Amino acid sequence: PSCFGYPLSIFFIVINEFCERFSYYGMRAVLVLYFKYFLQWDDNLSTAIYHTFVALCYLTPILGALIADSWLGKFMTIVSLSIVYTIGQAVMSISSINDLTDHNRDGTPDSIPVHIALSMIGLILIALGTGGIKPCVSAFGGDQFEEDQDKQRSRFFSIFYLSINAGSLLSTIITPILRAQECGIHSKQRCYPLAFGVPAALMAVSLVVFIIGSGMYKKVKPQGNIMVQVSKCIGFAIKNRFRHRSKEFPKREHWLDWASEKYDKRLIAQTKMVLKVLFLYIPLPMFWALFDQQGSRWTLQATTMDGNFTLKNTEFFSPYVQQTVNPILIIIMVPVVDAVIYPLIRKCKINFTPLRKITVGMFLAALAFVAAALVQVQIDKTLPVFPAAEESQIKIINLGTRNASVSFQPDQPPVNIMSMGSTDYMMFETSQLRSLSVTFGNQSKTEAFTLPGGKRHTLAVKNENEIVTKWLLDNVTSKPEEGNNLIRFINNLPGPVNVTMGETSFGNLPSLSDSSYELFSGGRKDNIMVIGDSTTCSDTSRSFGFGSAYTVIINGCSGGVLNVEYSEDIAPNTVHMAWQIPQYFILTCAEVVFSVTGLEFSYSQAPSNMKAVLQAGWLLTVAVGNIIVLIVAGASKLSEQWAEYVLFAALLLAVCIIFAVMAYFYTYVDPSEVEAQLDEEEKNQVKKDPNFHEKQAEADSQL
């Protein structure tokens, strides 16, 4: 059955691919954040495991191609590996259920190793599934067309690529929103089970849709894997050359010609063409090493930025939304580049060959990482400085109605603080702090004190009948993660009060005491409620931005009106997330000229029956690229993130120059011409020897 001139079966295949890509990219969009915030791994381990997983996803296609071509056939390979894939996604969703091991119901898992073990099992099954079916689905779609349907087949591949990007775009928007919800039986947490569960459900839908179309598919029987033949041919040539290494044997034109004793001329000629392209692939993994850091390092960079896009639903604009920039730009850029940029270049009489496009793509990716480094330098300037082990930081808050002067003895100059005002944190060497002197007008007080090193402290001072001093330990050692805010309260009223902000209770605070810091999600305002002995007041808090810490001082509560002061302990993120858009834009331009051209170049230079070998080689470059990230990030030991970005940019630039030299010496071939030449030679052989084909078939069967 057909529809609009297309086999009806391909619609099932396109829907299947959309659901599968939604499932994969949706899970991947929140994966590095799941590692960091749920499994509590640091940035480096999260990045390392993320890239190991991506590398596995691009190594397994070789396995999938072997199973499909040599054993099960494409249809059964897709079905069986999709079942493995769906189970993997379901296990991943179960692994992220907080209540699974949270026996004491405190909101954190009691047994992290259980969650880690389940996650790793899930990820291995997903890597097997997604990688295994990757080379089969597009080829299976191609099999559905008749020989004379070339136009429809090429249109199908365009629709197929669009469905990949549509699935990717929707999932990278939707799963971070799902993750931002709060869910849980005993305590409310970020909803990872939903963020992983929806991709699992989509994968199940993908499998069901694919099976429904079963009766309509044209199923080609497995014909043996060409990769195996190519490998055997190369292996035999090397072995045979090694055996005949003495000078008495005449040299042959190409080292692969040493396979001619066992393999036919056609296979050897085709293998030469394939190896020529595979040799050019050697520098390409470096591009993927940079490209795939969008999902790891760049996502983590976004968590330290200001994500407030001043829309009503600020939760939507959380750090992970940046990942949607790439698929959105791809959908816009591919047609623009094809219809506008390339024709303009041709009009300028510039011969923009495929290999030149790939070189430009590599250069642009290096440029994108320079842009990322510049953004990182700006972010680093805004990060707070915390005290070293032998240092102390002190901030003074004046809770009194008059201006105060505080000096730390023996030799620090006095610090003046306005009424109801506060200072920034001041750094001191702990050993130099022995006593302090506080003055309010003609009142003064001196007292000795000792502080533990490596900590931040707040000194609250107040003038009542006598001067009151109170030391508060600020138990914050780093900037709040993920754009969240830390808030605490100081009660500056004469009696005790009960304080709540939003859904969070700070409990009962006696006069001149402080609460502990509580975590609030960034970019929102909450209602502050203060209940005293005889009065209740409420007010809406200010917006705390993203990644800040504040001390809120309750100065007055009468007639339902609340009077509070805000003292900034850690400044909110000030570098806006929009500054990441240039690096995403440059990297997307790089992807358009690199990735699309690379596949097109591989197809144009590959013999008709070896396209799968080059497809596997191309996917292998992605896997190796992710392994490079592990090696470089592990070996560089750079403490500054911007320096690591510059290192990757420099490495890619060096590789880009090497590739440009290799491309300069590459001569383009037309595989159909080479194959026509071989056909011609075979015809001549048949004329000379009518039994040529029978002998050839006999030799093949012996092989």
UniProtKB/TrEMBL annotation:
Comp. bias regions, Basic and acidic residues: 683-703
GO BP terms: protein transport
Domain of life: Eukaryota
Annotated spans, Disordered: 680-703
Bilayer-spanning residue ranges: 48-68, 75-92, 112-133, 154-174, 194-217, 273-291, 325-345, 357-377, 612-633, 645-666
GO cellular component, one term: apical plasma membrane
Membrane-protein topology: Multi-pass membrane protein
Keyword terms, alphabetized: Cell membrane, Glycoprotein, Membrane, Peptide transport, Protein transport, Symport, Transmembrane, Transmembrane helix, Transport
PROSITE patterns: PTR2_1 (PS01022), PTR2_2 (PS01023)
Any GO MF annotation of the entry: symporter activity
Chief location bin: membrane
Subcellular location: Apical cell membrane; Membrane
Catalyzed chemical reaction(s): L-aspartyl-glycine(out) + 2 H(+)(out) = L-aspartyl-glycine(in) + 2 H(+)(in); glycyl-L-glutamate(out) + 2 H(+)(out) = glycyl-L-glutamate(in) + 2 H(+)(in); L-alanyl-L-lysine(out) + H(+)(out) = L-alanyl-L-lysine(in) + H(+)(in); glycyl-L-leucine(out) + H(+)(out) = glycyl-L-leucine(in) + H(+)(in)
Keyword tRNA processing: no
Recorded family membership: Belongs to the major facilitator superfamily. Proton-dependent oligopeptide transporter (POT/PTR) (TC 2.A.17) family.
Function summary: Electrogenic proton-coupled amino-acid transporter that transports oligopeptides of 2 to 4 amino acids with a preference for dipeptides. Transports neutral and monovalently charged peptides with a proton to peptide stoichiometry of 1:1 or 2:1. Primarily responsible for the absorption of dietary di- and tripeptides from the small intestinal lumen. Mediates transepithelial transport of muramyl and N-formylated bacterial dipeptides contributing to recognition of pathogenic bacteria by the mucosal immune system.
Oligomer status and interactors: Interacts (via extracellular domain region) with trypsin.
Protein name: Solute carrier family 15 member 1
Species of origin: Turnix velox
